[in-house]
Structure formats: C-alpha cells, structure tokens
Amino acid sequence: MTRFKPSRAGLINIWDYTDEEFVFADGRLVLRGHNGSGKTKALEVLFPFVLDGVVDARRLDPFSGENRTMKSNLLYRGQESEYGFVWMEFAAGARTVTLIIAMHAHKDRPEVKRSYFVTSRRLGVDFGLLTDDSRPLTDQQLKRVLEPEAWHTTPTDYRDAIDSALFGLGRERYTQLLDLLLALRRPLLAKDLDPGKVSDTLTAGLSPVPESLVEQAARDFDNLAAVQRQFDDLTAADGAARAFLESYADYLRAEVRFHLDRVAGRTRQVVKHAGEVAVAGAEMRRADLARGAAEDERTNAGTEQNRLSARLDGLKKDSAYTAQGELEILRGQVGRQAQEIVHEREANARAAARIADLRTEVDAADRRLKSSRDGVRRLAADRAEAARLAVIVHSDDDDLQAARAQAGARRQDVEDVQACLRKLGDAEKDRRRAEQAVDKARERAEAAEQAVETAVGELEEGRAQALDDLNAWAGRWSADSAGSPVSAGDLAVLIEALDGLGEAGAPRLAEVFGDLAETRRTTLARTAAALDARSAQLTAERDRLAALVQEIAAERDDAPALAGARRADRTARQGAALWRLVRFADDVSDADAAAIEGALDAAGLLTAWIHPDPRLTAAAVEQGEADAYLLPAPPGSRPAGATLSSVLVPEDQSHVPARIIADVLDSIALTDVFVGTATTPAVTRRGQFAFGVHLGAQQKTTAEYIGATNRAARRRARIAEYERNIEVTSRELSAAQAERDTSQARLDDVGRAKAELQPVGKDVLTAVGTLAQKSTLLAAARAEHGDRARALDGAIAEMDADRRRLRQAATDRNMPAEEKEIEVIAQAITDFLTTAELVSEQHKHIASAESDLESRRRTIASLEAEHQTARDTLAEKEEGHAGAAERLTAMEEALSAPLKEILEQIGHIERELAAADEAWQAADTSVRREHDALVGARVAYQHGTGAITGALGELLDQLAAFGPLAHPDLRPVLGVGSGTAWPDRAQWATPEQSVRDIIERLAGQDAAAAVESVLPQGTADLLRSYEEATSGRQIGEAARKRARDRMSAALGEFDDALNACEEDYRLDWQPGESVVVVQVQDADGRHPVADFAHRTAARAEEQGVLMEERERTVLEDELLAGLAQQIFQRVVAAKELVRGMDADTRSRPMSTGTTVGIRWVVADKITDSQREISELLGQDGLEGARLADMRRLLRQMIREYRAGHPRATYKEVLSKVLDYRTWRSFELRLKVPGQEEVRLSKKRHSQMSGGEKSAAIHLPLFAAANSLYSSASDTCPRLIALDEAFAGIDDVYKPDLLGLTVRYDLDAFMTGHDLWIRYETVPAAAHYDMHSDKASHTVSAMLVLWDGCQLVDSAAGFAGNEELATELLGFSPSRRVPVNSGLLGLVDDGSMDSGDGEPGDGR
C-alpha cells in the first residue's frame, strides 16, 4: 500500500512570506540561499510546528532562543493585527491529508489565537485559504467549508487527530517522535560532530516525562509542601507566640505590679489622711473644752492683779518712798558704769589677742615667702637641667610663652622621630609575621610532600592489590570451555587497562571487560532472544494445534472452504448449504461417495446455499448478495436418467424441507460417462462435473463433508495428525528452552563477572584522586612558600629603609635614634614645660605674698595704736566709777527706818503681784495654747479633708490608669479569671462625694474600711485577684523599663516571625499610656494575642496529626509510584527504540563492511542515586521491592536537589530530577570485519575515513527516526528536517549520506547555504533558491527540480514555478477559494476584518 509523503507546504502572512507554497519532489524539499534569505524561518514555522501546534519560541527557533515568537512573525511588518496560516499536505496516491494552523495576532494581545484543522480535502482543489482579492479567510469561514470533524481547538486534540490520520503511534510515542525530530532539526547537525554530540542529540530525541504529569506532580508536591509550610507556619507562629507570651506576661506582671503598688500607695495615703481627719476632729472637740476652762482661770487671775496693783500704788505714794528715787538713779548709774568697764576690758583683751595673732601670722607668712623664693631657685635649676636634657636653649628669664614655644617645637621633633620609630616597629612586626608565615608555609609544604609520598605508596599498594584481585577474578571466571565468560586474552587487556586506570578518559575495568565481552554477550543475547522467539513460536504453534484439536472435536470446522467470491454473511440466513442437508445412501460405495463429493466440491455445488423458499433465493440474487444458490429445475427441464437422488438422501433437519432438497437433487444428473456438452448440471462417479461450457474434475480418496459418518471420520484423522504435530512441537520447545536456559546462564555469567569486576580498581581510582588532590595541595603549598619568602624579602627591605629614614630624621633634629633616649627627651620636654610653668606661677605667688605681708604689717600698726587709745579711755572710766560707788554707799547708810518698812511692804506686795502675774500668764498661756490647738485642729481637719480629697482623686486616677490592665483580653495572659468587668469611669462618684462618705463612715469604721467602701464597685475584688496573680516584690522604674524593653524586643521578634510565615499574619499593637495591647489579625479576623496563641496551638496540633512523617510518606509514595511507573515505561520504550536502532544500524554495513551499533548505557558523570536508580530501571518489571526502592531514591533525589537549590520550584525540581535521559548516554559501537567490536570513541572516530565518519554519525540519527516510524502505521509519512544539512561535510561524502535517507525511506525537509541535491543516490528532490528583499519585505523563490538525472528549472521549457509545480503535482497549485465553492460570499461576513477582528473560536 502506498504510504503518505509530504507533497507541499505553505505560509500565508508569516514574516515576509505573504503567500508562499513549497512543493516536495518524492518527499524531498531543499530551501537554499544566503543567511537572511528566509530559509530557516520557513523551516522553523513549518516543522515541526505544523505537526504539534506548540508556539513556544524555544521550539520554533532552531537555536532554542526565546526572541522569535509567533506573534513577532505575524506582526513582522509593524501591523496592528494580522491573520496567517501555515499548512502542509501529505499525499498517498489519490488520498491526501492537509494540516492547517490558522492564527490571529494583535499587538495589544500577548498571545496568538490559533485554530487547528486536519482535513482530507485538498487545498486549491476543494477549498482555499485566500479570497480572490488575496485576503485570508478567518477560522470561522474555514470551519464552514471543511468537514465538521476537521476543526480542533487545542494542540493536544490537533496532535491526536494528526496521529490518528497519519501515524498511528499513540499520544506518548507521537510526542517522542516530535522530540526526536526537533533534536534532528538543530542547525549544523553534522559540523564537527563527534560520538558524544550524537549521544546528546539522541538523548534530546527521547521523550521526557510529560510536562503535564510533571506539572500535576509538582502541584501535588506543592500541595504537600503547602500543607507542610502551613504546619511549619503554625508551628513557628505557635512557638513565636509562646515565646512572646512569656515576655509579654513578664511585662504585664511588671506593669500590673507597678500599678498595684501605686494603687496601694495611694490607698495608704487616703487611709492615712482619713485617720488624720479623724484625729483632728477629736482634737478640735478636746481643745474647745480646754480653752473654755483656761479662759475662766485667766479672768480670776486678772481680778487679783488689779487688787494688788491698787495696793502697790498706794504704798509708793508715801513721802519716804519718794526720796528713794534719787538713790535709785545713782544706783543705776553705778551699775551701768560697772558694766561698761567690764565690756571695755574684754574688748581690750580681744584686741591684744588679735594683734598677737596677726604678729604670728606675719612671721609665718614671712617664713613661707622665704621658702617660696628658695623653691623658685630650685625650680629654675630643674628647668635648666630639663632644658639641657631636652636640648633646649633657654635663657634665665621667666618668659612662659617662649618656653612653651620651645617645648612645642621640640615635642614636634620628638613626635617626628617617634613616627619613624613606630614605622620601623611596624616593619619589624611585618618582618616577624612574614618569617612566621614562611615557617608555616615551609611546614605545610613539607607536610604536603609527605602526603604525596604517602599517596604514591597507597596508589602502588592499590594497583598491586587490584592486580591480585584481577588475577583472582580471572581464576574464578576463566575456563577451558568455550562458554566461559572470560577468554584467554581478556586478562592481558585488563592488566593493560589497570596500568592506565586513573588517567584522563581511561575506562574502568568493568567497562573494558564489557567491551571485550560485548561480542560474546551480544551473541549470547541474540541466541537467547532467538531461542525465546523460537520458544514463543513453538508455544504459539502448540497452542494453535491444541486449539484446532478442540475446535475439531467440538465440530466447529466441519464446513468445506468457501470460494473467494462467496463473501455474504450466512449467519442469520434461512436454509443451509447442500453438504449439510444430505447424506449418501446406504448402498453407495466409499469410492463413489468420494468421487461424487469431489465433483460437487469442484463444481461449487457442495457449498451452494438452498433456501427453504425459492422466493428467498430470488430476492438474494436480486439484492446482489455475494454467494451461490441452488434452485430446483422445472420438472420438464430435469434430467431423464439417474440423478443425485439415487445416491444422496435428505438429512433429518429443520432448515429446508426434504421435498425441496429432493427436487434440487433430481435437477442434477448422475452419469457414469463424462458428457462435455450437457445442458443440465451433471456429475459422474469418476469425480467429474459438467454444465454447458463449465466443466472440470476433482479426485478424492474419501468423502469428508457429506454425511455425519464421513465428517466424524475426517475429524478423527485430523485430530490424530494434529496430536502428532503437538508432540513433535513440544519436544522441539523443550529443546529450545533448555538451550535458551544454557545461553541465559552463560549470559548471566558474563553479567556477574562484570559485576564482580566493578569494585576492582576502585581503590586505585580513589588513590589516584587522592594523589591528584595531594599533588595539587603540594603545588599550592610550594607556591605559597615562594610567595611567603618573597613577602619576607620585601618586609626586610622595607624595614631597612625605615631604619635609614629613622636615622636621617634623628640626625636632622639633633635627636637620638633609640626609643628609650627619645623617651628621656620627651620626659625632659615635659619636665621643662612643667617647671617653667611652676616658676612662673611661683613668681606670681611670691609677689602676691609680699603684698599681703606688707598689708598685714600695716594692719598690726594701726591696731596697736587703737589698742593704746582704748586702754587710756578705760583707765579714766575706772576712776569715775570708783567715786560714784562711794557716793552711793554714803546715801544708803543715811536711809531711815520707816522707809525700810515701806520698802518691805512694797516688796511683799510686788512678790504677790508677781505671783498673780504668773498665774494670769499661765492661764493666758493655756488659753492661747488651747486656742492654738483648736485652730491647729481645725486647720488639720480642713487640711486633712483637702488632703484626703486630693489623695482620693489620685487614687481614682491610679485606678483609672489600672483600668486598661484589667481588660478581659489581657487577663488570660496573667492567669486572672474573667470575673467582673472593670467599671466605667463615667459612673464613678466624685472625690468630694466620696470624701463626705468616708467622713460619715469614720464614726463607725476604721479608715481602711471606710476608704474601701467608697471605691468603684468591683474594683477591690479585681485588685485582690491581680494581687494574687502578681504577688512578689515591689517593681521599680528600672525593672519596669527592663521588662518593657524585653517585651519590645520580643514584640519585634514576634513580628519578624509572623512576617516570615506564609500565612497573612498581621501584628497590631496599641502603645497605650499604661499598657501595650497586642493583637494578631489572621484570616479569621483580629484576635488578642493570648487567644491567637491558643488557637494557633490547637491548629498546629491538629495539623501535626495530618503531617506526621508516616502520613506524609504515604502521600509521597502515591505520587512517586506514579512518577516511577511513568519513568519505567519511558525507559522500556527507549530500550525498545535502542534495540530497533541497533539492529537497524548493524544491518546496514558500510562499503568496507564496517558496521555501527548503538547501546544505551549508564552515564559516567551521575550521582550515586542516579546510578542506583538506573540499575533498578535496567531490571524487568517494577513491582514490590524495586518499586519501593525507586520511590525511596526519587524521594532522596528530590530532597537533595531542593537542599542544593532551595529557591527552585517543585516544577523545576521535578523536571530536573525526573529527567531520566541524563542518567544514561548513547554509546556507539564499531565493528570492523576481522576485529573485536569496540566503543566508537572520539579518537577512533577521528581515525576513520571521511565517508565512514559521516556515515557513523548519521546512521544512528537516521536509525532513530526509522525505528520510530517503523513502529507507526505502514502508510505514515517518514519526514525528517535538517537545518543547514550536511554543513562542513565534503561533497564527496554527501551522495552516500543522502543515499542513507533513501535506504531508510525517509522524507527530508532540508535547508542549506549552497546545498544542491543532484546525486544518483537520490531519485528526486525539489529545490527553492531563495532571496529576501528587506526593503519591500518580500521573499522570492525559484523552483529547481532534480529528477534523478538532471536539475530542471523554468528555463527548461516551463513558464515558471507554477508550471513546474503543476508538472510535479498533476494540478495547478493554488491557495485561493475555488470559484464554484461558494465561499466568496463569506467576504460579507464581519469577521473578515483583519484589523481587530477575532478568528471566532476565542483561541
């Protein structure tokens, strides 16, 4: 059957292609031209885009770039909107399948809308894509003219439709085909290729795990991770809330304790003032009574005073008493004079003492002045000595500014030299450090040398041990028999490989043995496979024979074979065939029966159908049923002689009446002699038949179909024959299975020998790696030692330079260069300046002391003069006082006796009056005292009332400040029960009213009870609850601040922890005057922090149950099992593909007889986990323990990758981890006649001839495509695309390479800079020589045809491309709507607007 081939393809409004059609010749098309001509653009938007419908820029662009989007291709000329088409036609004789992708792009829309069509109609014949005015149809218009089932909305449906119409691969293998074709399409495929790049290309052609499955698994893992993250969030939030609550509770306890202490203090003040008010009230009452009693006593004392005063006045009016007045006056003068003399004597004594003290002070000051002068002289000497030490030239004057200037200049010299000295010290330190670094580097280099020597020894020991192991291995697996896995020459090759083990690119021993044993293994595998196939064939044959025996025994195959023209269904038809309706008469011999049955069979009468009603036969013939029928001949036309009725008898059955059967038998003559011109049907007893011009014969030995006895005999004979065949087949099957078991055992021996060889030499590789590492470290250590030594030399040179600079600076400044001497000069400068300052200060002090001494001496002289004057005045007063005293004594002696009596009475009355005065004074004092007490009590009462009012106001204010701490949201943090709500401040009594209540209650209650009774309702109980919850020592401001600071820090950490959570937690706090209230807002709203912590802990505990490791593992296992199965299926498919490729390439030897094979082996540069999972996938089946191991490995690989790439998404992780293609690589095998098969390495490839190189590279690639196409439908197209095909390959080799595509029966879509296919190995190819005009945005293409003999273009008698294409296609190509299709009416459809219109399907 003719297969589909690509016949033509086209582009409409894509890039610079306004309307371009390309025609294939025998399935081959070449686009050639310079860079920028548009050949690659045509390839990238046609193939494989037209086969998969994916607009990913990385699939469109052969260079896997992202800048060539389909939108940019449609709007290339700067349009706002554009419709476009890509299409390709496949033809198989008269049958065609056309693939169309309709697209619409708009500059304001990011995506290109697409519709997909798969139709059996032919473009330009049955429909068109352009109107007469060259406007593209919309997808809605196109849907109306194609079959309803032609339109598809998604790329997946489109690919399924293509696969169903053309390939028949199934979704997965069709995707694998597209991936391989995309890999083959890469530009410059053949240039500088080597086997490694071939492996990469073939690997890229393998189908990855479907992206949809990866995305689904990624979503599932993301969901698991989301649940885990939610659990982690909850756990983190719970932990953060718990940690914060500890600090928050401490803070609240500190605040509560602080405010409780203040409330207690204010309460004590109120109670104290209340007690004071109570005491003041009692005192007022007592003082009022005491004052009344004292006032009475004072009144009585006043009356007595008045009486005694009157009596005293009468006595003093006596004449004798009046003379007493002069005597009193004199007595007073004498007393006053005596007092004045005493005072002046004391003053003179003090003045004399003062003068003596001043003289002592003057003497002391004089001595101090002399001492200061001596000190100045000593300081001057010290200054001179310091100046000498400091090398300062200084005069003996006391110019302090000059001394300071000299000291500053000299100190600068010291600093300059000290700077040089410090630089020298730093240089010395650098030198010492450099010396230490050199020593350490030397030690490291010596240690590295020792390590290298040790590594060399270990390598030698490892090689010796590996050689011993290799010999022991060879002893175990070598034998004289031909079936041993190790041949005689293998050991020498392995020993040679062992010597080179560890070198770059050197294979492991197991790989070398694998190469050596590959031929044996392949032969054994092929033998085992052939024997398996033989066993399967024999088993199938045995089963077939057994089934035939059963079918024969069940009488299901008694019928003779029908003629090919009798195809009508007989299942439900009335009647039966002749052979079932009759039997031979008893007197008919076996020979006659066999002859008659043979004649009836040869004539077609034996299987002819007889209806129970002749009218049914007429109807069947009228309807044209493909069958043969028997009708009785009319009685007049029947044979006159013997008929079949004489030898055949109707059977007892219900299908056809016996009468009709007998009439049919009477209509066929039975003769002994052959009559060739009989006009009626006739058979003979010799197996002959005749009916007019139709005659013939058939000899049979026995009758088989007519009669139950004959049929039973036939069944017995056939059953016996089949049973004999079954016995022979069973013996052959047993022999094949035994031989297969032997081959498989020998094949297993090869595998086990290779497996045992795996660890041999591993220690050598380890030792080589260690030696390389140690050698690298040694080189680094030696380099470091050299660097350190050079650094030491530099440090020494720098130190010498600094020493020279130090000496030069010291010489220039008349300074020493030693540090101690410099310190001496620095100290001398300090001493010089200090002594200079002290000398200047002492000179000032001496001048002041001299001035003070002179002033003191003047004061002493003045005081001595004043003291002498005072002594003279005192002597005069003492003389006057002595005379007055004498006169007083004389007058007193002259007094008379009556006067004495009166004086005695006056004295008595005066004493009584004095007593009365004292009594009045005492009473008055008591009155004043009690009055003062009363006033004081009243003042205390009023003050206490005011104080208690103020204190109570402060207490209420403090209670109000405590109110926020009593908020119900904060009580759980402190462990306080909900209890009574804190009363509203607006409902509290005023302090004045409360004070009045307290005063009223003080009469019957103590102060504390009275105060508590007026507090707002419920506050006392709440305060006691908080007191119990926060009992402890008093909190000061410092402790309170520390608690607040800790809480602030914890709040910040809490906020950071919540912000780090993925869940939207928002921390909200209100820094009130007395307390910070913290709340958390989550998805359920705003909650107090304690409530949030409680809810979070509960959710974390609940989520923790779901996220137990066991539950997570079960969920992951379910996901990983599906992924593992998908990978296993793809690996199995890949292995089947490789087997087909290997067999295909080996069956196509080169001209030298060299063949190329392909293996898919475990890659070298993979992780241990990838290697282990590759070995699992190499086994048959994926069940039980192997599935569990694979799940474990996948889980481990996912976690390892996420650990190394923490920011990667699960889709990225799974795409990387599940890419099974990276676990293995393709290995090309080279078999040269007469030589062992070897791996085709890059080195061996470079040694091949040019033609062999090209063939060796392209054979596997073409074989991969051939293998996939071979598993598809027999009529499928076999198209490959090659961008820049065969670039870099000599022209001499191109015929063979192109011949390979012909031998593989591959269609080819190729591009090339100067590619001409004009070789006898290619029967035909269409070329388009292309040119792009950038100014007009157009592409021109000239068709050139290779017809197998020559290149034909329009110059060979054709008017142009269209006429030449017509010659190829058999009709004139066109993309316009046929005139008779009725589609021109679509131009009135509003959807034809190419500005902003939509295709109509919304895609």
Automatic annotation (TrEMBL):
<dbReference type="Pfam" id="PF13558">
    <property type="entry name" value="SbcC_Walker_B"/>
</dbReference>
<dbReference type="InterPro" id="IPR027417">
    <property type="entry name" value="P-loop_NTPase"/>
</dbReference>
<feature type="coiled-coil region">
    <location>
        <begin position="712"/>
        <end position="739"/>
    </location>
</feature>
<feature type="coiled-coil region">
    <location>
        <begin position="417"/>
        <end position="465"/>
    </location>
</feature>
<protein>
    <recommendedName>
        <fullName>TIGR02680 family protein</fullName>
    </recommendedName>
</protein>
<feature type="coiled-coil region">
    <location>
        <begin position="846"/>
        <end position="919"/>
    </location>
</feature>
<keyword id="KW-0175">Coiled coil</keyword>
